[in-house]
Amino acid sequence: MWPDLIKKAKEGGLDAIETYVFWNAHEPLRRQYDFTGNLDLVRFIKTIQDQGLYSVLRIGPYVCAEWNYGGFPVWLHNQPGIEIRTANTVYMNEMQNFTTLIVDMMKQEKLFASQGGPIILAQIENEYGNVISSYGDAGKAYMNWCANMAQSLDIGVPWIMCQQSDAPEPMINTCNGWYCDQFTPNNPNSPKMWTENWTGWFKSWGGKDPFRTAEDLAFSVARFFQLGGSFQNYYMYHGGTNFGRTAGGPYITTSYDYDAPLNEYGSLNQPKYGHLKQLHDVLHSIEKTLTYGNISNTDFGNSVSATIYAVNDTSSCLFGNANTTTDATITYQGVEYNVPAWSVSILPDCKNEVYNTAKTSVMVKKSNEAEDEPSALKWTWRPENIIDETVVLGKGQVSASQLIDQKITNDVSDYLWYMTSVNLDKDDPILTDDMSIRVNGTGHIMHAYINGEYIGSQWAEYGIFNYVFEKKVKLNPGKNQITLLSATIGLQNYGPRFDLIDTGLPGPVEIIGKKDDDEIIIKDLSQHKWSYKVGLKGLDNELIYSDKKFASEWQSENLPINKMMTWYKTTFKAPLGEEPVVVDMQGLGKGLAWVNGNSLGRYWPSYIAEDGCSTEPCDYRGSYDNSKCVKNCGQPTQRWYHVPRSFMTEDDNELVLFQEFGGNPSLVNFQTVRPGTVCGNAYENKNMELSCEGRTISAINFASFGDVQGICGSFKKGSCEATNDALSIIQNACVGKESCSVAATEGVFGSTKCEEGTSKRLVVEAVC
Ligand code: GAL
Fold it and tell me: What integer pLDDT is reported at residue 546 of this predicted model?
């Protein structure tokens, strides 16, 4: 997908592509590196260069990024004597080793701008300033060491440290956030740079789906440039999918759509993409004045101001209104301009308003319109065979007289089996009619089995990752087998000393016997001899690949429904066409999915997102945060899972599911995603653009020019509609075409009876 994504980014008006470097992806085992396939960093940077863009390389190598363990390989945690992200030689040696490797690799390929390559900036660490205080003096020493180490690598382009207000020169500290117009770098000679403008926010299992309006995002950008900003990066411009086990956590979903301008599938997220493209075009058109101009400001009070950038006799103006509710009318050089609340107008010549951040005039795509692939899938299945060994026999690979942290396994799997046995004398006082087991877990999921029987599961609630599992049990005199399966859903990726957060079952694990007289007897099993086994048999046996030894041992009879720990397999043909493909996982619980051996990531459609969405459209005015605009309440947190076309062949493809909780695969089906309804919206004297992205516009549901009310999907005519028949004008101009452009003027649509000062617009809803 790289060339296509980069091409769309360039067409969207970007000049540079910023990327992190993921240490745990490139060095999965100590000193064993992987730069093949999608991990080919050099090829990625060269692909950027080939399209004439610059690149910003955020090496980190701690990156956060909602990525498993913030990008640290978990073996790092298991190095003797290590303390991560502080002045500790074991850690610093490893960090330096990896950073140097990346820098040398870039140098060798002549990829730094100083060598004629595209990389104009490089980053060391990531937002260390947010957590430095919890590391005391050692934190400060580490931060200075990072700066010196980076400088010593001599890359010929500047190094940046984001959110590091005490970054030593010549490091440049940069800002991350939803707004950075108020940011000032610590060195007055440094440019004001914004490494992460959050275009939306990520999604967590059980959480609502945050989105950020195009108007507010555009406002944050224009405001930043009005107030002297020189570099602004979207985080994310394209977030994509957390395939495999890359999602961080805990509980970050497989989709990392982020409401970014290019959506999870790489399609244009409208109106955001188009509205920003127009902004970028305007900013490019005034590049000279913005970069060389003398700056003067006029403050009109009430958060309204004008900034003029002037070079010789050319000047460009940005009029800003940071008021959250009141529109402003300002007079500049004798002319009146209306600046809506929470917006910036750009006048490249200080006379004509070419762009206003609050006036979107491009098409909107209603999301999640998917087209069904009709054929029903035929399934085969097999049980997860590990159960016999672990649940019945309690056989592990290693043992210890303590409960271990799951990170000790180097995070090679989500799954770790904890097994112990308890011998009870027939007159042990704990043997009562009222017995239970109690487990303290941080897991994030646990399934418990006693004497070969499943007794229950527990999973952390969204946002609360510690739990206590307590369940009535019946234990027998003699040997009792206790097996607990712990499953992680992405290791913590952010926070002070996040690397040390407990993972798995830290305990205690207790059995409790209550007597008739309310006397309680507790046996703490935490120091018992526990045996451990990592992972799933089905993965050891390579069930996900069709050409391996056990590939034939699948059954087609008696397909189980709602059965835990079950593998399912089916074959399917790739949906025709070029549109992105998703698999609808409705009906399933939690598990892992693969197409032709490529992991689609974790799925969990049965996890319903919490309530609390508003039915009102989200007001773009006023400060945004990730709880302000949300959707998808009460729906599966993630129902559709991206299957990149590169994972599929033209012949039969194989989908393999591991179903951990139990579910019904009969509703699973493949779909393509395409725009269904598109809406066009243009303010007076602008052009309204409609496009079905490669399909033809088949019908027009609504068209009106005037004071139209409502939003895409529910537009209503206003009280002063233009006299000509807007519907037939738009039908003639657009139906049967892939895209069309119509001028929103009274010349085209006839006169309106709107009052002076009404902002008139042309609004269209079309079917693709
Ligand atoms: C920042 C961090 C990014 C990402 C972002 C939230 O703090 O630098 O890597 O995690 O938050 O999406």
Answer: 82
Q: Which of 176, 204, 252, 492 to mutate to test the pocket of ligand 1 (most atoms within 8 A of CB)?
A: 176
Task: Report the DSSP pairing between strands 54-60 and 380-383.
Answer: unpaired
Binding site membership of 202 for ligand 1 (Cβ less than 6 Å) = yes
- Convert the pLDDT of each residue in 674-733 to its tens digit: 878 888 888 898 889 898 877 899 999 999 999 998 877 889 999 999 999 999 999 999
Give CA–CA dist 328/752, Å, rounded: 24
pTM: 0.94
Cβ pair 745, 684 in contact under 8 A: yes
Strand order in the sheet with 343-347: 294-301, 304-311, 314-321, 343-347, 355-356
Question: Is the model's pLDDT at 368 over the cut of 50?
Answer: no
pLDDT per residue as tens digits for the range 304-323: 999 999 999 999 999 999 99
- Residue in 638, 729, 714, 636 with CA at minimum distance from that of residue 677: 714
Catalytic, 109? Answer no
Helix (H) or strand (E) holding 280: helix 272-285
Cβ partners under 8 Å of residue 222, min gap 6: 279, 318, 320, 344, 346, 355, 357
Any ligand 1 atom below 6 A from CB of 414: no
The reply to whether ligand 1 has any atom less than 6 angstroms from the CB of 175 is no
Residue nearest to atom 3 of ligand 1 (CA): 65
At 396-433, the pLDDT tens digits run 999 999 999 999 999 999 999 999 999 999 999 999 99
Q: What is the dihedral of CA 704, 708, 710, 714, to 10 degrees?
A: -20
Query: Whole-angstrom Cα distance, residue 345 to residue 693?
Result: 29
Contacts with 248 (C-beta within 8 Å, 6 or more apart), sequence order: 64, 65, 66, 67, 68, 69, 70, 242, 490, 491, 492, 493, 494
Mutate to test the pocket of ligand 1, among 196, 201, 625, 626 (most ligand atoms within 8 A of CB): 196
Candidates 310, 332, 488; CA nearest to 413 is 488
Q: Whose CA is nearest to atom 11 of ligand 1?
A: 65
Q: How far apart are CA 519 and CA 432, in angstroms?
A: 11
Residue in 27, 125, 196, 684 annotated catalytic? 196
Q: How far is the CA of 65 from the centre of ligand 1 (A)?
A: 5
The average confidence (pLDDT) of the chain is 94
196 is known as an active-site residue: yes
Q: Nearest-CA neighbor of 211 among 221, 219, 203? A: 203
